[in-house]
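Request: Give me one sample?
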Amino acid sequence: MRLLKYILLLFLFFSLSFCRTKVSLSGASIPPDAKTISVALFPNNSSLAPPTLSQRFTERLRDLVSQQTSLGLVKTNGDLQFEGYISDYNVAPINIQNNDQAAQNRLTITVYVKFINKIDETKSFEQSFTRYADFLSSNPLSTVELGLSTEINRQLTEDIFNKAFNNW
């Protein structure tokens, strides 16, 4: 009985060692033939967003793919490519009180992403990603905007990364 268990264990080990999917420490599934990745600048196509949002979002996505994969980051034409734009940046009142005053506001950021996988084109996609954060209306946007947009960028880039590499 023990011999049978060892044989099954060895068979399982050898079977799994021949799998062709490359997996990073983050659990991301990366095609084994992919060596490079490029992240183009995501321009700001929203009229209300601060001018630094485009650069901060792009750098956050570049940092994430650099930290979570072993792919070489190149300026253009990588085996895997991210491109797109910031399509919406909006502040809207929520949680209206009795006197028609908003108790909270919501900052929403939407990013349109085109992911190109030259190795396996079935994994390519085009999709909009939206995230938001709420803040008290007693706080002026100018005092909370940087912190909120940083957190929203973190969430957006994780969603984009997971869609591209974890098939979520």
About this structure: Residues 141-165 form the longest helix (25 residues). Confidence is low (pLDDT under 50) at residues 20-26. The longest strand covers residues 80-96. The two ends are 41 Å apart (CA to CA).
